[in-house]
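Hmm, how's this folded?
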Amino acid sequence: MYWQRYSFADLDTNTLYTVLKLRVDVFVVEQQCPYPELDDKDRHQGALHLIGYDNGELVAYARLLPPGCSYDECSIGRVLVAPCARGRGLAHALMQQAIEACRQQWPQSAIRIGAQDYLRQFYAALGFQAVSAVYLEDGIPHLEMLLPNAT
């Protein structure tokens, strides 16, 4: 695996297209959840796009947002592993990379996520703690989880 972080301005058109297509394929089509995937946060000045490549193919992705963009804390979202790469532990590796990137970029911030409820134990194993009741977002049960500041 090779991990790369990009600002929006650093994404070439082919990479951007591949990211957006994979996000729509997973979140809109696979999860049968029509929602506004393009929310203008991708091109926020501080946003980072974390991409995992395996043999040159984009197989893992997460969007990292600075404090004040979605929450008071920095956040990790749009977390996905391509269907062709699932079952190899890449989701855990992706989240470890995302947490490390957030800690480097925004060292004073805790990390907040809006997690799908069925993934609560996955995120808890990474140190995230539930900080809200379950709520529906686009028809899918979610909850907010927080990883405290490391310092």
Summary: The CA atoms of residues 43 and 139 lie 26 Å apart. Helices lie at 13-30, 90-105, 120-125. The chain has a mean pLDDT of 94. The first strand starts at residue 2 and ends at 6.
